[in-house]
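Session log. Operator J.P. requested a structure for one protein chain; no other inputs attached. Running the standard single-chain path with token output.
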Amino acid sequence: MVIAPVPRSHARRQIVLGRIALLSVLAVVALDRSADLAGVLTSTAAPTTVASATPEGPGRLVSPSLRALNPVRTVRDLALDLRLDPARSLAVALVETAGTLDPATRGDRRPGDPRAIDGFCSYGLFQLNVCGGEGAGLTASDLVDPVTNARVALRGHAKVIEGGSFSSPAQAVVRGFQRPATAAVDPYIAAISPGGARYVEAERLLAELDD
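Structure written below.
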């Protein structure tokens, strides 16, 4: 039996098609790996309502034991220890975390700032700022520890309120400590004042505590 030779042009075409198919498979694999890596390193949360920030939650920084802590109870207990209004304190945390109360929330992205951690300046329940703010000197672990974050923030709240330089506790907290963008100041104050959206939400969450 005589086998007819395969034309050289046909053989070359088959080789080219095979290489194209291989490159396509490799490209798909590379894209899948990139997407998986991005998902592990960051997860984007919804933007805050009144703080004009886009926090992101690096869950890898928060241990399961810290996640098990109830942030509502944590904030309430620390606020009571400092003789602060628990509803207002919790309302601030709700604003700063876009309502998630996620201790790993991060915002104020500044990839070029050497003071930033992983390219972000603000971390935790109260978005302590490491780029010249109240979070300066704290480690990443400190910032996402809800107890440490809340303690630093609420001590700051108590200090500015006791200073008496503002017309109301909510003004003192927002203007004297949290210091959001200028355009967000008035909506922020309204949200954490009695009757404000975040204040009412905080009251509901506090009422739901089982102790």
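Operator note: Residues 1-41 form one domain.
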